[in-house]
């Protein structure tokens, strides 16, 4: 699935944020109602870089799909 073709926007959100929190924030900040929200989490882990162990932070992303015709403009 190509994100741009499906009217989907990707946001990095807080680890404890829920889909309801994301929906409310999108409604408040941008004035549009999401059709669907999917979330994914990348778990924090250790990796090796130049022979040393480093800590890679975990992140959580929300994929927000809007109905046809709705858009979000970056400020």
TrEMBL record:
InterPro entries in alphabetical order: Nucleotide-bd_a/b_plait_sf, Ribosomal_uL23-like, Ribosomal_uL23/eL15/eS24_sf
The entry's keywords: Ribonucleoprotein, Ribosomal protein
A Pfam family matched in the record: Ribosomal_L23
Name the UniProt record assigns to this protein: 50S ribosomal protein L23
GO cellular component assignments: ribonucleoprotein complex; ribosome
Top-level taxonomic group: Bacteria
Lineage start: Bacteria, Candidatus Kaiseribacteriota
Keyword field contains Isomerase: no
Biological processes, Gene Ontology terms: translation
GO terms of molecular function: structural constituent of ribosome
Gene3D superfamilies registered for this protein in UniProt: 3.30.70.330
Sequence similarity: Belongs to the universal ribosomal protein uL23 family.
Keyword Ubl conjugation found: no
């Amino acid at each position: 699935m190509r994100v741009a073709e499906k009217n989907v926007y990707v946001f990095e959100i807080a680890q404890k944020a829920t889909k309801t929190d994301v929906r409310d924030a999108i409604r408040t900040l941008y004035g549009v109602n999401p059709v669907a929200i999917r979330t994914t989490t990348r778990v924090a882990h250790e990796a090796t870089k130049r022979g040393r162990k480093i800590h890679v932070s975990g992140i959580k992303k929300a994929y927000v799909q809007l109905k046809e015709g709705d858009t979000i403009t970056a400020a």
